[in-house]
Amino acid sequence: MTDNLIPLLPKLNGHRVLVVGDVMLDRFVYGAVDRISPEAPIPVIKVQRELVTLGGAGNVVRNIVSLGGHVDLIGIAGQDQSGYDLAKLLTELENVTPLILTDNSRPTTLKTRYVANGQQLLRSDHEISQMVTKDIEDQLLMRIKPALEECDVVILSDYAKGVLTERIVSETIAMAKDLNKPVLIDPKGRDFARYRGATMLTPNRRELAEAAHLDNIKTVAQAEQAARVLITAYNLEFVLAKLGADGICLVKREGEAKHIRAMAREVFDVSGAGDTVVGTMALGLAAGLTPDQAATLANLAGSIVVGKIGTATITPGDLAQELHEDQIRNTDQKVVPASEANEMAERWRRQGYKVGFTNGCFDLIHPGHISLLRQSRAACDRLIVGLNTDASIKRLKGEDRPVQNEQARATVLASLSDVDLVVLFSEDTPLKLIKSLRPALLVKGSDYTPDKVVGWDLVESWGGELLLANLIEGQSTTSTIARLKTATGS
After folding, report:
1. Single pTM value for the model
2. What's the pLDDT tens digit per position in 332-342?
3. Active-site residue among 158, 275, 318, 363?
4. pLDDT digits (tens, 9 = 90+) for 203-218
């Protein structure tokens, strides 16, 4: 669940990333269109404002810095006004060491987008895409080698503008491997052979299809299959497939793939979203997050940035806010009817997860409840909690119970990260629910003996386990209510 990532956000701060690739400028010309030109059937844009930002590898840098990272940036620029503008923008960024070479034989890459009424009308590119000369390669490698020794992770940002030649890519990967530094590559083109030996590639849907020699990729399963072809062919550890509205799919050399759905939101501009994803992924790995955790954050960052205008960046605050909102959404989604819980439990079993089950009234949740749930979740991969309805509690405990109604109790339980599903049951015991869910782990408090645990005979019959969780002395809802009555004199 994404709520487990909130405590990890501070870990992103302070790590060093080496970014090598095609640095460019993104120029946005914003205006309004209210007429067609009398000279040709084209719209006339009345310019209202202009914005120039770092693009390409520079946008990767912006995202890493905005998340708290430090960056060494290696690339090339021309000796022109755009090159001066690029240098100025880099000096304005904190925690960036620009190691930009000047190549007099080419202009600084400049992409100009004309936007009116929220729609992009036209893009013009000012560039030369031919590969840099051997002399420039030598100079780039002279900068790359010492920077590798200081960084935690490397990003090669390939926009096919000539910086990432086959020699630059292969020698950077080799040097990084010698230093045990992961290399992430945002690839370009149809032939990924020159990326052989990288730690991770982050292709989009079209790039993945072309590299795997497919006409198209329509499903996540097809994306996973194509990624595995690339992993085997090019000796990769991971492929992070960026699938647009379908989210991302992290495919590993070993182990199951992880598909992370995109967060539902209105899309304003997809420009630079891939830069955000690879930058966040790299910084997450540098911070010691697992590949799954880093991929989840990267997907979240990409989902946020497409809701902004232009080549935008995200901050830890953006991530924290979205994670909190996602936690609220997940809380609502965790409370399900028994039929849906049965389907989810079966799905988890097929994925190889150990499904656990515990139950109770959970009226006025106290530290004893929290301890039991933590022990339960620690002993399984997914925990389902059976919750007595108000009617069943009244039959068991009297007309003055529960103190909190079933909706309130379910909401509190669902908000806990140790709980994966909450299922209400109206019977006096959870026997029917246990029979349908078929958990591999059954949990009750240590005040029970195995012969007194409802459903244990069933769970034992299909090879399951019983956990009698340790209890915290003096913690119970009944004693809490008694103390409240004494305090209020009622």
Report:
1. 0.70
2. 688 899 988 99
3. 275
4. 999 999 999 999 999 8
Burial of 406 (0-12, 13-18, 19+ CB in 10 A): buried
Q: Which residues are CB-contacts of 71 (< 8 A; sequence separation ≥ 6)?
A: 16, 17, 18, 19, 61, 64, 65, 95, 96, 97
Edge-to-edge strand ranges of the sheet holding 119-126: 43-56, 23-36, 109-116, 119-126
Residue 72 a catalytic site member:
no
Q: Are 336 and 42 in contact, with CB atoms under 8 Å apart?
A: no
Distance CA 87, CA 81 (A): 10
Q: What is the largest CA-CA distance in the chain?
A: 90
Contact indicator for 455, 428 with CB cutoff of 8 Å: no
| C-beta of residue 80 within 8 angstroms of C-beta of residue 107 | yes
Cα separation, 466 vs 230, in Å, equals 44
DSSP string, 22-87: -EEEEEEEEEEEEEE-SSSSSEEEEEEEEEEEEEEHHHHHHHHHHTT-EEEEEEEE-SSHHHHHHH
Distance CA 403, CA 400 (A): 7
Q: Which amino acid is at 351?
A: Q
Residue 375 tokens read as 């022990």
2-49 pLDDT, tens digit per residue, is 557 888 899 999 999 999 999 999 999 999 999 999 999 999 999 999
